[in-house]
Amino acid sequence: MAGRYVGERVLRLEDARLLTGRALFVDDLQLPGLLHVAFLRSDEAHARITRIDATAARSRPGVLAAYTATDLGDYWRPGPLLVPPPPIAGLVFHTATQVPLARDKVRHVGEPLAMVVAESRYLAEDALEDIVVELDPLPAVTDLEAALLEPASLVHEQFGSNLAAHVQQRKGDYAAARAAAHRVIARRFHYDRGAAAAIENRGVVAQWDARVEELTVWDTTQAPIPIRNGLAALLGLRESQVRVIAPFIGGGFGPKIMMYYPEEVLVPWAAMRLGRPVKWIEDRRENFYATTQERAQIHDAELAVSIDGKILGVRDKFLHDTGAYDPYGLTVPINTQCTLLGPYVVPHYDSEFTAVFTNKPIVTPVRGAGRQHGVFVMERLLDFAARELGIDRVEIRRRNYIQPDAFPYDHEILFQDFRPLVYDSGNYPAALEKAVELIGYDGFVKQEQPRLRREGRHVGLGIVSYIEGTGIGPYEGARVTVEPSGSVRLATGVGTQGQGHFTTFAQIVAEVLGVEVGCVQVSTGDTREFTWGTGTFASRGAVVAGSACHAAALKVREKILGLAAPLLGVPPAELVLEAGSVHVRDAPEQGMRLGELARKANPLRGAVTPGTEPGLEATAYFGPDRGNAASGVHAMLVEVDAETAAVRIKRYVVVHDCGTIINPMVVEAQVQGGVAHGIGNAFFEQLSFDENGQLMNASFMDYLLPTALDVPSVEMAHIETPSPLNPLGTKGVGEAGAIPTGAAFAQAIEDALAGSGVEITEIPLSPNRLFELLEAARGAP
Amino acid sequence: MNGQHTVGVTVNGTSYQRSVEPRLLLSDFLRHELGLTGTHVGCEHGVCGACTVLLDGAAVRSCLVFAVQTDGRAVTTVEGLGGEAQLHPLQQAFHEAHALQCGFCTPGFLLSLLPFLREHPDPSEHEIREALSGNLCRCTGYANIVTAVQRFVAQSAPQAGARVSGAAR
Amino acid sequence: MIVEGTYPLPGTPDVIWNLLMDPEVLVKAMPGTKELVRTAPDRYEGVMRIGIGPITAAEFELVILLTDMKEPHSYAMQIDGKGRAGFTRGTASVELSPDGAGSMMHYSADLQVGGKIAAVGQRLLDSVSKLMTRQGLEALNRELQSRLGGAAV
Fold it and tell me: How large is the ipTM?
């Protein structure tokens, strides 16, 4: 759908407000009589609560209330299971969801024990010290294997074990494939926890207006509509009595799609009880425990290959750390299970995982959402196979790709949207060739690297391939309205956390209606503006909400043509929409401004033809049959200092396919940001928990985010294989940059250190860890 | 109750007098006492740089400064740089280079850059990245921020010093 | 967190043992101890105040249980400290052996640390605990010297 706006690098309409500091973020809200909240959180990872007494806190001046679990009465209940497990045969799933305030037991450090409401945050925090808590510590469950085999304690006693889920998906007959294989490559892989670390922490502000009986909630959520629906149900209100607004949000990345966090359900409740608006803003240390995170897994995987490197089958058995509760179901490990197959033909597959409860913060999707683990396992196994078989690592991938004429390609297992994993379109060989060309693969391997090695320098190249399932349902909606002023109002239910929806959605609508993109005013994330939808997650905004915007704009276009035709005395087919007017083709003077037409469409008096709808407005929904498959290849050059194990990225190349591109400027920035996130996850970031479940680096001093010195400018190229699953032909791109980075790093560093015996089967690395691995490979004591 | 201190501070050219607790952070003072919410708080321990403002022209982390320490001094926040109708040239460069996504860290970057650019009107890419390394961004991956600075430098050239110092004081 | 080592002290094990059982001496020997009371023959309770990096003056309520008393050679301790900035708990042991005219103290502690102190003070725990141990032993040494009528404090 090329044209005036779609495909163009339109500068963002939302920038001026953000640049001048005038954009509203949740903590910017100032309401008369505003009260402030602080939470008392558990210092223990696993303990029985033997005593909790907030009496002293209540009598501190400036404190209006201090609540413990008992004070919540009937309001206390575990949150809902947000994502039920997919209908996979033989699946075992134990539901255990988070509670608003801990009662009887705490199950992770940072779990909330009490809530104080006071005239200022400073006073509320002072009052936390008055609360008496006695916790009787229990052994903490932290090691994934020990948690299942010889647990020192149970996170949830009612299940009789720490097993949260068990899922097996199979296709073909792996045992037969293995028996017929020339080689079987087997390894154990570790991927460790990391935080999303959006620069804006979470926050909730709630105001109950008793005169009109309406609750307004401002929330840093990626899912305002489900939050509204859930809060209404919890508080005994009608959905129409609750308005949830996600204003400007300082980064989402996944954890802000977790819903019914304790703070989210308690702040509105307190606002209604106290009759004054209430605000809670998370601080950074809280964010490390109280906001969800990802992604510890241990994989025992093997690849069965033929003598010429063709994949005969894969078997993967893995443990997945779900944390203390599992409200988000199995989205993350199912993504791992599915994404492992990648762009390859895998005739036989046996994937089995066990999700394990631990005394650590809850795990829910964080940019990549489990896909990076699958990519890491498969790409590493292919690398090891290539080495053992003496096949070039690019060649082995080429030999196993699903070919461009094989679509739609059915992998025969179930994806996170409960639909079969079927790839809609793609051209993996073309992306690989482009990446090989951009990074200068042949020249590097044949000439440059040998030359650098002779100079004693350790420079390596990593090149990896991946699929990202995006654009899943169920649906989103949009409403387009042409106003009498001529400006166009677009409202959709998804929220925005920096992806540029105010511009990209405007581009879609502006092109269909023939108006200036700046005339389209977009509203996202306000349940008063649009009341149906599920949220921004899983790289689906542009695909699903964008398609809904497109569909709504098309309906308005039909109305415009239908109304203007009789007024202008010509059939609709002879009319065009251009520059904010509808006119006869090649006769612009025979036309009307859209604003004027909108006025005519809304008469105050007279009669209309029965069945006519007033105005130039339409609502439309889009729900894809299933998710689509974006894909890409990442290639990087790194130099490793053999003495200090310091790593420097010299070049980073991404060839990416997200189907039709709405705004290349936005897409490239999403990829660049994703790569930065991936570099952080692969090298700098690790949540370090000790064996007692204590987080030892809950600050940016010790949890290292990459800076401008650590992230190169990514060189990008695009392949476009449009998706047949939506009218725009577009695919998602939000997580792409972050998914294969670990695999690329590992291959590149091994290549740089070729001959050292170092094998990288864990993420994250770090100079320290790499140094240890180097020393171990050298046989140092 | 903690004792109150009177603070007389000029922010973006306007004088304010307030009575505050000694422990009140400058970031909270600007945001909640004065209603200047353009300065954002990301970590409260001085690492992310989102809260950067100018104190007598020098970049400081407002989460590490107490409001009482600004008595008799001048503070510049992002609201003092430009308005939506007339962006500061550095803000304009950020817009044209798509150097912001969620925008939460952006004011901190802008304020950190002003003194740097005053001192280094013609920085190399490495110098720019070094100057940016004290501010964390989770959305952009920094590439476009570097481009924005280069764009600003190229467009300012001879007037770089005068224009930047005019806004900073 | 493991803290262990040896330290020579003037006086025979008998003398040192008695000093170690005296709460007044312990208050001096444990830096930051505001008060320490022996509430039972094998139990001390008190309040300690320490600073670790970004956390200044964190107060802890301390309970120490003495076990395996083998006067005057050795004893073990169960330590439980709780406060707003976090907690610490674990076990420790002290052994006194004759060393020439004086004694050699062998000490060893295995402590779990949790809460805010563990979350933001991790890099300093080792050095702070070593510092506190050294300060404590030096204070104990001075106390011993003065009680033995030796050098002034």
Answer: 0.96
For chain A, list residues with pLDDT below 50.
1-2
Q: For residue C79, which of C119, C99, C50, C109 has the smallest C-alpha distance?
A: C109
A696 and C87 in contact by Cβ < 8 A? no
Q: Which residues of C touch A697 (CB under 8 A)?
A: 119, 122
- Is the same domain home to A644 and A603? no
C-alpha angle A503/B31/B64, rounded to 5°? 110
Q: Give the CATH number for residue A510.
A: 3.30.365.10
Cβ <8 Å between A692 and C115: no
Assigned domain for A309 exists: no
Residue numbers in A near C123 (CB within 8 A): 702
A154 lies in some domain? no
Beta strands A214-219 and A242-245, pairing class = parallel
**B53-65 pLDDT, tens digit each:** 999 999 999 999 9
Residues A630 and A773 occupy one common structural domain = yes
Residue partners of A592: CB distance under 8 A and separation at least 6 = A564, A567, A568, A581, A582, A583
Residue A511's region, left for phi above 0, alpha for psi from -120 to 50, else beta, is alpha
Searching chain A, which residue's CA lies closest to the CA of residue C122? A696
Q: How far apart are CA A15 and CA A669, in angstroms?
A: 15
Domain boundary among A622, A652, A671: A622
Nearest to A283 by CA among A291, A275, A293: A291
Sheet holding C2-9, edge to edge: C2-9, C102-114, C86-99, C74-83, C55-70, C43-52, C33-40
Do the beta carbons of residue A508 and residue A728 sit within 8 Å?
yes
Hey, what domains does chain C have and what are their CATH numbers? 2-152 (3.30.530.20)
Does residue A172 lie in a domain region? no
Q: Which of A589, A622, A655 represents a domain boundary (last residue)?
A: A622
Give CATH superfamily name and number for B5-78: Beta-grasp domain (3.10.20.30)
Whether residue A607 is found in the same domain as residue A634? no
Q: Tens of pLDDT along B89-136?
A: 999 999 999 999 999 999 999 999 999 999 999 999 999 999 999 999
Contact A285 C119 (CB under 8 A): yes
CATH homologous superfamily of B89-160 equals [2Fe-2S]-binding domain (1.10.150.120)
Measured distance CA(A39)–CA(A117) in Å, rounded: 9
CA distance B98 to B50: 18
Nearest-neighbour CA in chain B from A13: distance (Å): 9
Q: How far is C121 from chain A (nearest CA, A)?
A: 8
Owning domain of residue A599: 15-21+473-622
A722 within 8 A of A427, measured Cβ to Cβ = no
What's residue C151's pLDDT? 43
Round to whole Å and give the CA distance between B138 and A676: 8
pTM for this model (two decimals): 0.94
Residue labelled with tokens 């200036």: A516
Q: How many separate domains does chain A show?
A: 2
The pair of structure tokens assigned to A297 is 């897994």
A193-229 residue pLDDT tens: 999 999 999 999 999 999 999 999 999 999 999 999 9
